[in-house]
Amino acid sequence: MKCLAENDDHQSICRVCGSDRLVVRKESLVPCKHCGEDNKAGDRECYSCRHPL
C-alpha cells in the first residue's frame, strides 16, 4: 500500500513511509523562450532571466 506522498524521480524509496511503491511528483516544466531555462508551469516569469513567460 502506498502512502501517496510525493517523491522525486531520483528516489528509490518513499521519504515518508519507506515503501518502494512510489508516487512520483510530475512537474510540468515550461522552457523560457528567452534563455531556455525550465520553469514550473504557472510561473509568470523565468526564475533565471526574469523574462515574462
What number is the mean pLDDT? 80
Gyration radius, in Å? 15 Å
- Please state roughly what percent of the residues sit in beta strands, choosing from under 5%, 5-15%, 15-25%, 25-35%, 35-45% or over 45%: 15-25%
Walk across the major sheet and give the strand order: 1-2
Order of helical and strand elements: EEEE
Structural class: mainly beta
Task: Please summarize the sheet with the most strands.
Answer: 2 strands, parallel
Described by the principal axes of the CA atoms, the overall outline is: elongated
As residue ranges, the low-confidence spans are: none
Which properties best describe this structure?
mainly beta, 53 residues, two-stranded parallel sheet, elongated, 4 strands
Provide a quick synopsis of the model.
This protein has strands at 6-7, 23-24, 29-31, 38-40.
